[in-house]
Amino acid sequence: MGKLHNYYSQFHPVVWVLLAGTVLARGASYMTLPFLAIYLSRSLELHPVLIGITIGISPLMATVGGFLGGYLSDRFGRKPIMIGALFVWVLVFFGFMLADSPGWFILLNAFNGLCGSFFEPTSQALIADLTPKEKRMRAFSLRYTAINIGASVGPLLGAYLALSSAKSAFLVTGTVYLVYSVVLLIVLNRFSITNNLASGERVTFSASLKIIGRDKALGFLILGSILINAGYAQVESNLPQHLTASIDNAVFVYSALLSLNAVIVVLLQMPISHYVERFPTMQVMMAGAVFLSAGLLGFGVVNGWTMAIVSMFLLTIGEILIFPSSSYLVDQLAVEHLRGAYFGAAQFRKLGHFSGPIIGGFLLSEAGGTIMFGVMASIVLASIVFFMLGSKVPARVPVMVKK
């Protein structure tokens, strides 16, 4: 019991609520959003291009809204932005349940992206606000683990609900987000989380843009992260198509690979994070790029179960090393009273999620899967150049942090 208490006490109670809420909210969203394309195709019989626009509008709006949401959280406080985004998110999922035309789905998914871009950077900034610097890398690793716990359970529940009633999945998801909103509001009030945690200093939107625009280290980190995300996006977009043409029982294999990915993250995220804390964070990012690239190369020549599993293992180790480290580096670079804006600006990395499937899809159709994955692996490796350049920029705080 003593060890359990010590482990719990290393983070603020609000941080634990955010982590628990991440498991439930991500699990609920994974019950619906991965099946949205199937729902639009079967229920509304939409053209694939229109389905692509509907799905793609979410990461595009998240890219646009990320910096604005982060800035507003610095200007008006974490609490109103987070709670406001959550309650609008509730309306979005209930809206999906009632929508009956393409226009409504496009509008609702655009708001889905905006809500995520407001809530995610603000919640990360709040975690950093409430966590000592020496423990923030561990907190971000726990957050990533929580995301993957939700990702491992949500699709299974979503598949079950889809067989009975697709709209019931939207209802369940909206209800979970409503409960999360109310609980988080109560907890924030209980611990007197005020509207301005980072600083009483107020900075205008244009001034925030100028400050962040001059931060070359952040710019290089975002550019490298865009390349990373462009490669990683192939897992959800073009990998299933490539597997269909390469191996038998591709649908089952792909489903098993996604489950394997989530399980590996849940089991290995914290042990690996504890181990790499002794190394400079930027070096951890570079190592992650190598592992991720190796996984993509493996998928390019996949010819059966064994190669597929090895490739997914390598790719998963890469994401374990990269994504929590990226959040930690944003925190290290952030100007104290603009932490939310910095996390919001980091949402520009989602340009990789938007462009990656388009580039990969073109290469897959024109040159085949082996060439496509080879090119995307090279793009991921190119991120190392930007990470190296970022590490050499004289900064207000060190870009590479030794534990």
Plain-language structure description:
The protein contains 18 helices and no strands. The radius of gyration is 20 Å and the shape is globular. The longest helix has 29 residues, at 48-76. The two termini are 28 Å apart. The model is unreliable at 196-200 and 397-403 (pLDDT under 50). The chain has 403 residues and is mainly α. The protein has helices at 2-9, 13-29, 36-43, 48-76, 78-98, 102-130, 136-164, 166-190, 205-213, 216-232, 234-237, 239-246, 250-276, 281-300, 305-333, 339-345, 351-367, 369-391. The chain has 2 domains: 1-197, Growth Hormone, Chain: A, CATH 1.20.1250; 211-403, Growth Hormone, Chain: A (Up-down Bundle), CATH 1.20.1250.20.
List the defining traits of the structure above.
403 residues; mainly alpha; Growth Hormone, Chain: A; 2 domains; 18 helices; 0% strand; globular; disordered C terminus
Total helical segments: 18
Structural class: mainly alpha
Relevant CATH superfamily of the largest domain = MFS general substrate transporter like domains
- Sheet-strand content, in percent, reads under 5%
Please identify the top-level CATH class of the largest domain: Mainly Alpha
| CATH architecture term of the largest domain | Up-down Bundle
